[in-house]
Amino acid sequence: MAAVPEKRAGACAYEELTPNQRMTNRFHLACLATLVPYHQRPAALEAWLDIDPALFFMGFDPPAPVVEAVLRLGGTRLRAALAHTVGKEGTQRALFDLDVPEVDAALLGNHRLGYTTLCLLRVRDPIAAATSRSYHQDHHRRALFSSDADLAGAALLDLRGEHPPTARATAWETVRAAGGTARVRELAGLLPGGGGPTDADADVVAACAEADPEPFLDSAAERRLGTGALLRRLRAAHRPDSPPWKVQQVMRSILEEPYRIDWRLVAAARLGHRLPRTAAEVLRSRPECPPEVAVVLRTGRPAVPGRPLPPPAREAEVRQPPRRPDSHWVPPWQPPGDTGPFGDTAASARQALRTMTVVYDAHRDPEAPHLGHLSAVLERGQLSAAEAVPLMRPASLLTSWVGQHSGWADVSRVAWSGRAALHVETAALLARWSNGGVPAEWWAALLPRLWHFPGTLPELLAEVSGTRSDGPEEAGPEGWDGPEGRDGPEGRDGLEGRDGPEGPGREEAAGLPRN
Fold first, then answer.
1. Local structure of residue 36 (DSSP, 8 states)
2. Predicted confidence (pLDDT) at residue 515 exceeds the cutoff of 90
3. What stretches of 38-109 show up as alpha helix (H) in DSSP?
4. Helix pair angle (418-433, 19-35), 10° resolution
5. Residue 355 above 70 pLDDT?
6. Which of 2, 138, 237, 363 has the most C-beta neighbours closer than 10 Å?
7. 113: how many CB neighbours lie within 10 A of its CB?
8. How far apart, in whole angstroms, are the C-alpha atoms of residue 118 and residue 148?
């Protein structure tokens, strides 16, 4: 891991942070990246990735503007880092559509990989998916039971996990139905070690060794999926030491597997007293059970001639997965709240920002100004966001509050709020600072400083760029004139008009007390 020089106040060694502190720092960086100009986000993220390879590992996905910049403008290394941790299904699919081997490998190492994307990766590269770290037993089982022959065949190459006896046998039959004996032989030859983990695989491999494997494959399928296999499992599930409701639950789960049921054999087993009563009740409740077989299962005797047969069982309604409807609700306008320590005038608000530290809410410090107070000040028109942004401290509270999901969403949904105005002005300040591009060293220097920096955002940017009170010869990028802005009423940062036509002095505009 690259080392960052730690010579300035407010910067802590990144290597000394605990894992939880690093995740918190990544959250602050993701919020800051939302405010960085769009075409410069990948450069900033690349510089941070050089120091922290797990930059996107923060317990949740990065904000949408950051993800979009990585997908559209990021390099392979940046996209792979995102693919290794992202959990949103849409983002995983977008990364898959890039069709980049490094990105696919990172997706296969993602423990939050969704089932749909995993299936696509299985079909694209079955060998890599069979040894990936993103293994999920339930996902593997679903793939084995899938009706897609390519997906079922790719899942057969993965020998991990414990599955029902019918899982791999069903997958072999799906492949056989789509590709015939040739496809089964080809797939059996790809099994690691020349055989699979179950008897079903051994039967298929042995059948493929025959000159005419068709009858042997039929026999192997009947041995695993036929009525005899079903009746054996139902008798094994009938345990006297288990309560009846649990036995029924196990039997119903067994019947959900794709067995080939011959109802004549089921009726013969009931007539021969070789079928437990609980199994008979569960089989009788199946919608596909013929009425004459239902009589045998219920009474243990054949149907009486001339007596009407019972109607077939009603099919159970298919439960649709819950889907939350799309919300287009926009919060209504609310009157401004209490301004707290900021007072009721522009002068008092400006003085409070220069001398006090803003906290997140009243729970942190009841006596300190918090973000709700600042929003009320802006919405009342006491100060403009252009005046508040250069004076608010600490910098990380400002950038994280307006850069997180709810912050940048307010720009379009709650555009009247003070938070939306702060977002716009903070992004404008960063755009002026990075006008024309900044060196990668400057982006990297932000990583260990942002979280614990006690000063304002202009002071942080000035420290990173080496322009803090060092004279005009160490100017930042083109168009950036330090935290104080340009002199005169046409200053870039909108601070003109506060203390006369010439604007505030250097120290005052930076949030420092005037001498």
1. S
2. no
3. 41-51, 64-73, 76-83, 89-97, 101-108
4. 90
5. yes
6. 237
7. 26
8. 14
In which element (H, E) is residue 37 found? Answer: none
CA atoms within 13 A on the CB side of 195: 9
CA–CA separation, 54 and 20 (whole Å): 13
pLDDT, tens only, 357-398? 999 988 888 889 999 999 999 999 999 999 999 999 999 999
120 closest CA partner among 230, 470, 171, 103 = 103
Is the bond leading into 394 cis (omega within 30 degrees of zero)?
yes
Q: What are phi and psi of 370, to 5 degrees?
A: -120, 180
Q: What secondary structure, in 3-state letters, does 329-368 show? A: CCCCCCCCCCCHHHCCCHHHHHHHHHHCCCECCCCCCCCC
pLDDT, tens only, 428-465: 999 999 987 889 999 999 988 888 899 999 999 999 98
498 touches 504 (CB < 8 A): yes
Q: State the average pLDDT over residues 19-47.
A: 93
Q: What is the pLDDT of residues 67-117, one digit of tens each?
A: 999 999 999 999 999 999 999 999 999 999 999 999 999 999 999 999 999
CA contacts within 13 A on the Cβ side of 422: 30
**pLDDT confidence of residue 198:** 75
Distance CA 68, CA 78 (A): 12
pTM: 0.79
**Alpha-carbon gap, residue 282 to 286, rounded angstroms:** 7
Confidence at residue 13, expressed as pLDDT on a 0 to 100 scale: 63
Strands (E) across 309-451 are located at none
44: exposed, middle or buried (Cβ count in 10 Å: 0-12, 13-18, 19+): buried
Q: Contact 183/153 with Cβ under 8 angstroms?
A: yes
Q: Are 95 and 84 in contact (CB under 8 A)?
A: no
What pLDDT score does 478 carry?
47
Provide φ and ψ at 218, rounded to 5°.
Answer: -60, -45
% of the chain exceeding 90 in pLDDT: 60
Count other Cβ atoms within 10 Å, centred on residue 344: 11
Look-up of token digits 């998916």: 129
